Amino acid sequence: MKTPFYISCGVSELMGAAMIALDIKMYSTGGLGVFVFPSLIGSDGSLLKLSLRFLLLSLAVFSPSSSNSLYEYQIYNSGGEVAKAEGKADEAAPVPKEIQQEIIASPLIGNIVPLNRVTDQVFASGAMGKGIAIDPTDGVVVAPAKATVNLVFPTGHAIDLTTENGAELLIHIGMDTISFAGKGFKTYVEAGDIGEAGQKLIEFDLATIRDAKLPVITRSL
Asked: Any idea which residues carry the catalytic annotation?
């Protein structure tokens, strides 16, 4: 996005030069903390005098404001201790579920292809998530891990799973295979089924896909 950035910089410079030429003044919020001092300019254009006045005011209010903050902090803490003493403290937050390592095997027999090399840009760009592509040598899709079946497409060309550790997987067979309307595909599971690793999920006919001049590369995300 370098070109739009350069254009916006050039336009801003021209706009600033025009404002100076037309003697247009603008008020804006200064920085925070000590960085606010350089932004204090009086109506007569003086900077130092106004900054010194503001510095004195800041020092004058520093003591009461800091004391007030300390007082509120003490009240907050003492209130928490009282609540604990009376047994009214909030219950402890639940311990987060321990993240466990999970082995996800290949759902097909075949050759692995980098996802960014498939011709479908939706998958190649990673818009659907990270994963791999497989050029299958066998028309059988198996469960890559113990998982629950979330969805089996009516055409049988894709299936969505969630492993027991929470990883969601989408297995999409071939490209544009939805156009077969189920021809050459056979499913062995339904939504809600729990499959073990290696269990047969879908069978498909490689020859049917190849005869239609469509890629058989399968994506697993």
From this structure: 172
